[in-house]
Amino acid sequence: MLNGLYDAQYDHVPVLALVGQVPTSAMNTNYFQELNENPMFADVSVYNRTVMTAEQMPAVVDEAIRQAYAKRGVAVITIPKDLGWQEIEDNYVSSANLYQKPLPLEPAAEKIQEAWKILKEAKRPLIYIGQGTRGARKEILELSKMLHAPILSSALGKGIIPDNAPAYMGSAGRVASKPGVEIASNTDAVLFLGSDMPFQSFFIPKDAKYIQVDIDGTKFGRRHQVDLAILADAKLTIKKLMEVGEQLPETNWYRAALADKENWVEWLEKRSVIDSSPLEVEPVFKAINDMATDDAIFQVDVGNVTIDGMRLLDTSKDQKFTTSGWYATMGYALPAAIGAKAQYPDRQVWSISGDGAWAMVMPDILTQVKYNLPIINVVLTNKSLGFIEAEQDDAKQPHSGIDLIGANFGASAAALGALGFDVNNLSELKEAFAKAKEANRPTVINVNIFDHRPLPVEQLQLDSAEFEKEYQTQGLIPFSKLIQE
């Protein structure tokens, strides 16, 4: 439960958590199963109370909901067992439903003028977006066209801009794309909108001009030195920038960025048709993209699968991508998919996990079966905690605690009442996906893949024959060459 609550805390999601406690008469006596629960939830919550009488419960619940919405966080109420059975007068008038979000913050006019000056004078401008720009797709694309600036997003911002938009480069860092990393490391001015991405100082040059727009002033300068801070709503800020600005000429920087994206997509497409046993990961995601509906919801787990999902899932329409982007808790995808299907029963829902994360939570397939939730669960089995393996390799440490035994998770799911498949090659993959598409029941597709590290775009060595052989980078063109052409 705590992992889920911390995910909510980091993502600023209002949650009401009701927690049980021993009867009031047994509290503070070291009774059977008694815990001092308030300290357990103190750090994760914005509101944390134990109800002591049945009569106060409506008021406490009302206040908890109000605080969860107002502070965008977790409210915890601990309820002793005996209070839940007591009858009270039904005369409390709730007011939590009266809560209203503050109006979007307007940017100051002088800040807009200063921001436009920085962006206009930049030789290599970049727009970087986070979750705070949801609902501003049209405006972001228009500003990108006006500035001729490529667009990057945080992992949790994936899907705000369609993946097939030519100017969208993906993300930067380890969970990223080649063009995303190269564009970020070569920019000279960044418009940073609605994000608190923690790794900015690792991939954005320290001498780049930095404009940060956020509704929370405590975030300014927290991740990267800031030249201009704008306390305002991201969408309103973009609109104001376009009002004061004018169309700028296309630059070699922008053309090179588009070419970099095109080259990257071509390389991925060639890899997506590789037929092998075990499979490479790219054909698996091509099968997912081919089968996904226009409004599919992808719940992606933590590990190498996060990298793969960021690079390979196509969210070009109205699909939604989520992951445990801040707390990074393994085992996220399966329970998140259950929640998504319960909330959006008419939308197609996917959970995509590595075998390490899946093994932690797979009994919850019983929940999908019990409530007849037709979720498509894809398990990428490489018999390794691959993300940790790569970290150990980078640190030149011996491998420790990363080997997994592997299992036929399709068969285990079938034993639990779901439809299960075990896939080893491209023909089996296509057959399993075709059957999953027709099945109106929980499905688990266990895909055996090579234990190959995803291309480490954060440490590209395209001029190295050894690197090329290990990561099969034939055809990838360095950005330095593209920008010279």
TrEMBL record:
Keywords from the UniProt entry:
Pyruvate, Thiamine pyrophosphate
Task: Report the superkingdom from the record.
Answer: Bacteria
The residues covered by the Thiamine pyrophosphate enzyme central domain are 112-241
One Pfam short name: TPP_enzyme_M
Transmembrane is among the record's keywords = no
Q: Does the keyword Zinc apply?
A: no
InterPro entries according to UniProt? DHS-like_NAD/FAD-binding_dom, POXB-like, THDP-binding, Thiamin_PyroP_enz_cen_dom, TPP-bd_CS, TPP_enzyme_TPP-bd, TPP_POXB-like
Q: GO MF terms on file?
A: catalytic activity; magnesium ion binding; thiamine pyrophosphate binding
Q: Locate the Thiamine pyrophosphate enzyme TPP-binding domain: which residues?
A: 301-447
- Give the UniProt family note: Belongs to the TPP enzyme family.
Record-given protein name = Pyruvate oxidase
Originating species: Lactococcus lactis subsp. lactis
Q: What is the lineage of its organism?
A: Bacteria, Bacillati, Bacillota, Bacilli, Lactobacillales
